[in-house]
Amino acid sequence: MTISRLAAAACAALFASALGAAAQDCQPSKWGADDEIGAANLVTPERVAAAAKLVVKGEAHPLGIVIDPNMPAFPPRKMQLQVVQPGQQGGKTLEGGFGWPGSYNDDISQLWWGTGPQLDGLGHLGENDTYYNCNKGADFAQLTGLTKLGIDKVPPIVARGVLVDMAKHLGVETMEAGQAITSDMIKEAAAAQGVEFREGDVILFHTGWTDAKLNAEPAAWVSGEPGLTNEAAVFLAGFNPVAVGADTWGLEAVPPAPGDKVFYGHVTLLAHNGIYILETMNTGRLAAEEVHEFMFVLGQARLKGAVQMMINPVAMW
Questions:
Q1: Domain that holds residue 257
Q2: Are residues 94 and 128 in the same domain?
Q3: Domain count for the chain
Q4: How many angstroms separate the CA atoms of 104 and 94, rounded?
Q5: CA of 174: how far to CAs of 67, 146, 205, 211, in Å?
Q6: Is the peptide bond before 76 cis (omega within 30 degrees of 0)?
Q7: Rounded CA gap, 203 and 238, in Å?
Q8: CA distance to 3, 82, 224, per residue, from 232 (Å)
Q9: Among 111, 127, 162, residue at a domain's last position
Q10: What is the CATH classification number for the domain harbouring 145?
Q11: pLDDT digits over 254-264, tens only?
């Protein structure tokens, strides 16, 4: 065997060993080896009742932005919308079918569910084909839908929501692409803004990115973003939140901080901890009015086997 083949064989052996080690290192979820909802287990009657008490002013705010079919998205994602009037071409009505001159519009979409404001489910991102609770992608990711970890399994998420305004903490209207949010920065901003993290929370970050860039510079908006470092994701996971999100399309800094793995916070939160990710959240009003604590309510469309879902959670205070 030649030296090059020996080297290739050695590399293959090391890679296989690493895969085997990764599989052996994977530990079943603290909620049991068959669990499919991860941190949603933290949504308890007691926490729901406590979150409801945060509604004092009676204010409600949509955390989902308006989804424009022409808005940019992580490639190759896109959506197309068509509005049709079945059987009504040429101005015809449906008097024959309805008994009165009825008219109606329907809509048809071709889309990727991971466009715009979205919930990343536990089957979205893993490492070495290993996802939340040691599930192997080859076993549950079918062309016709996930057979495990689907969005349809996620119960309504009702929780205490908290907002950390990183842009304000840094004294800017909007953070820059690639600007990293570290655990030390989170600690400092949270302390300055009176934010306390508790188990079962939904933690959101305001960077100003979407408000400033989506309409004005759409190409720049989708090409980069400020966001979490790898270690910040680990830090946040330590609080046992139900979900972590931001007003950015991908949560982590792009380009990543030196030494970081791009989008590895997704693996930390989703695969390692069963914590959901909320992307492109509409946090501008909360930041402007200094709303740092609120009731968070999400009831996503329960499309069987879906990986992600477009969402419009509501913040109430």
A1: 28-73+113-316
A2: no
A3: 2
A4: 9
A5: 21, 37, 12, 8
A6: yes
A7: 12
A8: 43, 41, 18
A9: 111
A10: 3.50.30.50
A11: 999 999 999 99
